[in-house]
């Protein structure tokens, strides 16, 4: 039997996932956890399972906080309504990432993916995980941002650029700029590279917002956003930029 834990703070979602898992005769649910605090306590006091299904945004923090405090060798399948945490998820033993509402077909595929790792010891093979990420790369389609005490979902197609300023990365929309939790290096890995391109150390641009391209005396790109009206493409990125425009 595959010992399994669910981490989910929404009771309806937890019950639904439990019902879906009951259809798999080799899955044994040993615990349901609703918060970071409860998770830290449980994983501190109990034998770790082989498989964890974990929501990311919990009432008292992110489930990542549990595994950063209590490292685990269990495989994790993240279940969430937001896809902005993909990169960090794969750094923390994740073998799959299911967006809510979870479909039975996707759940079955994720469990089969887990089973493909069982012949090895009950620990994560980092090389296999890296190959899995390359094969099943998920691109970022929406981002959760904070506005005071409120949260807002921003679709990436609404973002004209991402830029770094005073060690904070902002995303710029027609409405305004919003601070994000990403670095530009992380965004390069998870944005759709057909739409987004890193033109220099400070900016990643969206091709849909390019107004004009000036090639002399300096290679510059004009974008439909404020506060910057012109962005210079780094000299060492010019060839790649040209190739990207026509790819």
Automatic annotation (TrEMBL):
This is Two component transcriptional regulator, LytTR family. The keyword Phosphoprotein applies. Residues 3-115 form the Response regulatory domain. Pfam families: LytTR, Response_reg. GO terms for molecular function: DNA binding; phosphorelay response regulator activity. It comes from the Bacteria. Keywords: Phosphoprotein.
């Amino acid at each position: 039997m595959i010992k399994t834990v669910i981490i989910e703070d929404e009771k309806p979602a937890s019950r639904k996932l439990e019902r879906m898992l009951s259809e798999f005769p080799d899955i044994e649910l040993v615990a349901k956890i609703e918060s970071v605090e409860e998770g830290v306590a449980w994983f501190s006091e109990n034998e770790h399972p082989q498989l964890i299904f974990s929501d990311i945004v919990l009432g008292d923090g992110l489930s990542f906080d549990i595994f950063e405090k209590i490292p685990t060798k269990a495989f994790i399948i993240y279940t969430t309504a937001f896809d902005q945490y993909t990169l960090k998820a794969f750094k923390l033993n994740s073998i799959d990432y299911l967006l809510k509402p979870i479909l039975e077909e996707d759940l079955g595929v994720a469990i089969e993916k887990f089973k493909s790792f069982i012949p090895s010891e009950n620990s994560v093979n980092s090389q296999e995980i890296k190959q899995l990420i390359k094969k099943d790369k998920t691109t970022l389609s929406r981002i959760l941002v904070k506005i005071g005490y409120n949260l807002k979902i921003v679709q990436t197609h609404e973002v004209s650029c991402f830029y770094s300023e005073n060690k904070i990365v902002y995303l710029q929309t027609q409405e305004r700029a919003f601070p994000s939790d990403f670095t530009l290096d992380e965004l390069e890995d998870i944005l759709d590279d057909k739409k987004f391109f890193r033109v220099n150390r400070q900016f990643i641009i969206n091709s849909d917002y390019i107004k004009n391209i000036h090639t002399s005396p300096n290679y510059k790109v004009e974008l439909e956003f404020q506060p910057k009206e012109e962005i210079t493409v780094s000299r060492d990125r010019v060839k790649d930029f040209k190739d990207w425009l026509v790819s």
